[in-house]
Amino acid sequence: MEPLASIEGVSKQYVLDRSLVTALEDVSLRIHGREFLAIAGPSGSGKSTLLNLIGCIDTPTRGRILMDGADTTAMRPVRTAALRREKIGFVFQTFNLIPVFTAAENVEYPLLLRRMEESERRERVAEALSSVGLTGRARHRPDLLSGGERQRVAVARAIVHRPALVLADEPTANLDTHTATQLIDLMRDLNRKLGITFLFSTHDQRLLERSDRVVRLCDGKVVEDTGAREVSDGQLSAAGA
Predict the structure, then answer these.
(1) Region 116-131: what's the mean pLDDT?
(2) DSSP for 44-85, written as a single string
(3) Helix, strand, or coil here: 210?
(4) What is the pLDDT of residues 189-201, one digit of tens each?
(5) For the chain, how big is the Rg over CA atoms in Å?
(6) DSSP label at 237?
(7) Topology classification of domain 35-45+77-229
């Protein structure tokens, strides 16, 4: 099966206080469609850096990243921006909602960037909010929503353009246990029903236990990969099983 994304020998270095810091070193992995995949590891292990590289927010120092076979590291910025708009959704631990927008307007924003017709935008927004159980909160601004509801709005915004891949950076970090469990159930349900691949960084053991695959990083290197998964007739099964 053609991987959705391939990370090939990727390293990332940057300068901090005049010192060269290696955030990732020779990382390689493949991500297939419909996976529910966690990137785990201690703080500073390179989890967020890896997500930023896969999401075309940053570029590697060495190696390359392919999305549907296309080398994103060789693309011009205008092409990577288009790739993000079309194929990738983002969920941030701090929600990153626009405070003066309602929930519906926050979800609609990615569609405005794509210049989608108003009638289709409204249909997509209603569908996305319904899928995260927030139809009745569409006209509320973020300051009138709970932390769990704000994160659900963020998930709706991430999926409204029907991406192939959603990247979530510590999505349960700022949520209480009950709300975090609800969010995990929601993402798992969207993964199964819509076939969206979820890739997230996390310290949350509950999220790790619900993942189909866990890749562990330490000091910027992959130290464990529980194994790539393949999809057959809509079900995930261990490769080679």
Answers:
(1) 96
(2) TSSHHHHHHHHTTSS--SEEEEEETTEEGGGS-HHHHHHHHH
(3) helix
(4) 999 999 999 999 9
(5) 18
(6) E
(7) Rossmann fold (3.40.50)
133 neighbors 103 (Cβ within 8 angstroms)? no
Residues 6 or more apart in contact with residue 143 via CB below 8 angstroms: 99
* DSSP for residue 137: G
CA-angle at 160, arms to 85 and 141, nearest 5°? 110
Tens digits of residue pLDDT in 203-221: 889 899 999 999 999 999 9
The vertex-175 CA angle with 172 and 176, nearest 5°, equals 125
Note whether 45 and 220 are within 8 A (CB): yes
Cα 83 to its chain centre, rounded Å, is 14
Please tell me the predicted confidence (pLDDT) of residue 235.
39
Task: Classify strands 235-238 and 229-232 as parallel, antiparallel or unpaired.
Answer: antiparallel
pLDDT tens digits, one per residue of 98-117:
999 999 999 999 999 889 99
Query: Given a cut of 80, is residue 123 above it in pLDDT?
Result: yes
Distances (CA, A) of 31 to 73, 148, 222, 231, 236: 17, 28, 14, 12, 13
For the record, the structure tokens of 202 come out as 């996390």
By the 10 Å C-beta count (0-12 exposed, 13-18 middle, 19+ buried), 122 is classed as middle
